[in-house]
Amino acid sequence: MQDPLKAPAPAAAEARSGGPTRSAGRRLLSPLFVVRGALPPQIDLGFGVGGLLAVIAVWCWLTYGGHVKPLFLPSPTGIWEGLLELHRREWLLPAIARSSWRVVHALFLVTIIGVPIGILMGAFAPIDAALRKIVNGGKSIPTTGLVGLIVLWFSIEERAKIVFLFLGAIFYMIVLVKNAVLSVNEDYIRVAVDIGAGRWQTIQRVLLPAALPQIWDAIAVCNGIMWTYIVLAEYINSNQENLGLGFLLSVSSRTNESGQVFATLIVIALISTFADWVFQSVRKQLLDW
Questions:
Q1: Which residue range is the domain that position 134 belongs to?
Q2: CB–CB of 237/230 below 8 Å?
Q3: pLDDT of 60-110, one tens digit each?
Q4: CA count, 13 A, side-chain hemisphere, 231
Q5: For residues 103 and 222, what is the distance between their CA atoms, to the nearest angstrom?
Q6: Is residue 92 within 8 Å of 249, Cβ to Cβ?
Q7: Which of 62-76, 113-127, 233-247 is the least confident region?
Q8: What pLDDT, on a 0 to 100 scale, did the predictor assign at position 1?
Q9: Pseudo-torsion of CA 213, 216, 217, 222, nearest 10°?
Q10: How many domains does the chain have?
């Protein structure tokens, strides 16, 4: 006979958890917060949109509510008006086009130089030993400290901006490509050697194809790095004749047009995000292995 002072096990568990509603809520939430777990695409999109809307709501509350001065944080309306003003002056679209061209040009140079060096360092230990300290040292030097040397070496013309972007990303490209090659499964190399493949055949037929998805990711990362440096690069001889997004930021800052400053920053963020989306889409379609 059951002891009347003891509740049944399910009822006791339910009471400790706060009732059936609370238990059901925990069961629904617990799969979403698994350590390193993956979310279904719809739920992932929902969380992303929710986070963005929360930031916009706080932003509107701070600005439209008068809690922050427009000079420090303009309202969405102020930023939109700043964007329209830049477009009215016929600065916005030429600046986007010129800055994008500079990034593409520098990224091309970083890719054709950095990728082969990274592959050789990952494939051959003597080359890695000879270049590792140089690459690590170059990666540690702040690119902003090289502005004076870049101007001294390359004057203040267009190529100085390209060189600045190049130096800001080349060492990261080499390190990322090297790590991509080193991450290839050692068993693949052993099999290639066992069937008689030479060194260059092993690189071309095994290492390069296996590391290609991560090399593509390295190119995407360096593209993002360059967009973070574009403002500093375009401070070099920044004027209306060769304007870029960095020039728009410089002019807007000097005139205390915070709406235009934030508008330009948002444009840079949107362009970089779009570029990342393109890289990821290409990877999923062509390099998904």
A1: 81-286
A2: no
A3: 999 999 898 888 899 999 999 999 999 999 899 999 999 999 999 999 999
A4: 15
A5: 10
A6: no
A7: 233-247
A8: 47
A9: 160
A10: 1
